[in-house]
Amino acid sequence: MHGVGDSTRGELIMAEMTRHERIMTATHKKRADKLPFFHYWRHSQIGWAERECRNRGMGMCWERPPYISKMHGVKSSETQVVSSGTVVLRRTYSTPVGSIYLDEKREPGIERWHELRSWRDVLPWQTDRLIKGPEDYKVLKYMVENTEYTPYYFPIEQAMDWLGDDGVVIDNMPHSPMQMLMINWIGSEGGRFFIHHAKYPDLVEDLYRAISKSYEPLYEIAAKSPAPIALCGDNIDGVLVNPKLFQKYFMPEYEKQARALHEHAKLMAVHMDGRVGILKDLIAKTPIDIVEGLHSPPMGDLPIGEALSLWKDKVVWTGFPGSVYSLGPEAVKKHALNLLREVGSGDRLVVEMSTENLVSNENLLMLTSVLENADLPLTKEKIDRIERSLG
Amino acid sequence: MVRENYLASLKKSIINLDFKAVVEVAKEAMDAGVDPHTAITDGMVPGMTIVGEKFESGEYFLSELVVAGEVMKEGLEIINPYIKGDSAKRLGKVVIATVEGDNHDLGKNIVTTLLGVHGFEVVDLGKDVPTDKIIAAVKERKPDILGLSALLTVTMPKMGEAIDTLKAADLRERVKVIVGGSPVTPEFAESIGADHCAVNALEGIKKCTEWVTPRGVS
Questions:
Q1: Contacts B191 to A, Cβ<8 Å
Q2: Signed CA dihedral, A263, A169, A296, B110: sign only
Q3: Is residue A115 over pLDDT 60?
Q4: How far apart, in whole angstroms, are the C-alpha atoms of residue A154 and residue A339?
Q5: Which helix or strand (DSSP H or E) is residue A214 part of?
Q6: B62–A240 C-beta distance less than 8 A
Q7: What is the pLDDT of residues A55-111, one digit of tens each?
């Protein structure tokens, strides 16, 4: 924020915060001038509406990895195959202890736009996961134990340079060990992770411990990256990650990661966009600084106001629900105004336009119209005024 | 071991999520001449019902519900070959699918297992199912209920497309449509013309049972 002298009144008039200052002030649990709101770069659609929203206060967020990884003693190859009548890309990893493969179904647009995302912003689906049966665990363990992580901060520095004061750049980190198994490597289709965890607990836990150990240098790398925040790429939903699993496998890992980050004065965010009501007391006990992607009902089951009251040492970056977007701009307006009314002063809160989807121009403009005048601290009068201004 | 003990052990193996025990007891029960239908309906199904109750009370989580379903499947693999013909009475028929573009089938599979446990005949079309395949299944299999699942907000519109296509094919009045999945809300369900939005698997099963149960019968 820059001070501007006003000679006629002898006062110091504070200029508006930049989008970066706004996001970071709220994230450091201090009061920003306005409620910060931003769009993730990967969800934004460069165009007139996006430009207009940015001109009206919407920030941007870039996620970039602070590391590169290399597997030693592992050969990988890709080939196109037909599996169950569908054309898929098969990636095979060959190691001295055996081979495993995954099959991916790819939509149009992948590698033509950004990352491995399709025109619909959807990642490739793994139709067959790396771990299919108990015999696959030793191969994946070999791969994990022979993965080397090294720092590579160029993408972060580049993004910070490009973005400047228009938003924030954050470290993108992989899923925590057990979530990696649940979502990526064993997978939850048909309940496979739960079944493996029940049938082969020793194999699952042994691999979990190997991943956890392999991540230790990664946490140090993230801690030293120039980005102010590291986002642990988990995808927490209390239905999938029940309290027993969260307590046993997730909390210890978050503590380890937070220790490394906090030593370098970096903040730790974890993506929790599911129904986390059942985990709310456990989340309160974690050292996480930012609960990222928290969705209010109807997609989540924990109202944002309640989360802010419960987690007084944390900041919430709330994801605007895709199911509300699907009902159109009027529903967006109503939901956004309700959000403002339930979050008290609006401190410790940042609004993410979306954490999962592209947003239509109409919805993006409507949400911006609600948020652009949300001066802090929020009051009933201010919110009523915003509502009247929208007609 | 007497018949009642086999049934009690089968029930216990489901409640305790015990893969090894269910297979052992199922084998022993069949060798001892226990009626396979009885083994299922008076042994494993009551176990699954208790698992459902524990889930509803919060003692068990989704993981236990899934694993119990899998334990039951392994027991059924032993028992099913002993069943002669299909003499089981069915409560109703359900065609179920995860819509096109969506690869998530955890919720759909739990519902499928529970529907079977509760006496429904289930035609599971799988995941990433194109609308025309769903409509063809409704036409050919004549179900009482069509269940549609989606986890991604980008695939939710496919549910509406299926309902619109049912209407266009004059099939909508023949079948109740229930939708479910994490992002699916009652408002969305209403907006696309579905009959019900399942809050969770068990609530969805209750609604399906209500639909196929004649009034006055509980």
A1: 327
A2: negative
A3: yes
A4: 38
A5: helix A201-223
A6: yes
A7: 999 999 999 999 999 999 999 999 999 887 788 999 999 999 999 999 998 888 887
Taking an 8 Å cut-off on Cβ atoms, the answer to whether B157 and A326 are in contact is yes
Per-residue pLDDT tens for B43-73? 998 999 899 889 889 899 989 989 999 999 8
DSSP bridge pairs for B122: B94
Indicate which of B13, B65, B103 best probes the interface with A, i.e. most A CBs within 10 Å of its own CB: B103
pLDDT band at A121; cut points 50, 70, 90: confident
Confidence band for A388, pLDDT divided at 50, 70 and 90: very high
Picking from B118, B105, B65, the residue whose alpha carbon sits closest to that of residue A195 is B65
Provide the shortest C-alpha distance from residue B79 to chain A (in Å): 21
Q: Which residues of B touch A282 (CB under 8 A)?
A: none
For residue A235, which residues of chain B lie inside 8 Å, CB to CB? none
A358 vs chain B: nearest CA distance in angstroms? Answer: 9
B109/A325 touch (CB, cutoff 8 Å), yes or no? no
| Among the listed residues A183, A199, A176, the one whose alpha carbon sits nearest the alpha carbon of residue A248 | A176
A139-153 pLDDT, tens digit per residue, is 999 999 999 999 999
* Structural domain spans, chain B: 3-82, 92-212
Query: Measured between CA atoms, how close is A18 to chain B, in angstroms?
Result: 32
Query: Radius of gyration (Cα) for chain A, nearest Å?
Result: 22
CATH fold, domain B92-212, is Rossmann fold (3.40.50)
- Kindly tell me if the per-residue pLDDT of A124 is higher than 80: yes
Domains and CATH numbers, chain A: 19-73+131-389 (3.20.20.210), 74-130 (no CATH)
pLDDT at B104: 82
Residues of B in contact with A240 (CB under 8 A): 62, 106
Considering only CB atoms, A299 lies closest to which of B101, B182, B191, namely B182
Helix (H, G, I), strand (E, B) or coil at A94: strand
The number of C-beta contacts closer than 8 angstroms across A and B is: 83
Topology of domain B3-82 in CATH is: 1.10.1240
Per-residue b or e along B141-167, where b marks 16 or more CB atoms closer than 10 Å to that residue's CB: eebbbbbbbbbbbbbbebbbbbbebbe
CA dist A347 → A22, A35, A114, A308, A341 (Å)? 11, 8, 33, 9, 13
Share of chain A above pLDDT 70, in %: 96
ipTM surpasses cut 0.90: no
Residue of B nearest to A298 (CA): B185
Judge: B17–A357 Cβ closer than 8 Å, yes or no.
no
pLDDT surpassing 80 at residue A342: yes
Interface mutation vs chain B, best among A118, A245, A326, A356, most B CBs within 10 Å: A326
Q: Per-residue pLDDT tens for A50-63?
A: 999 999 999 999 99
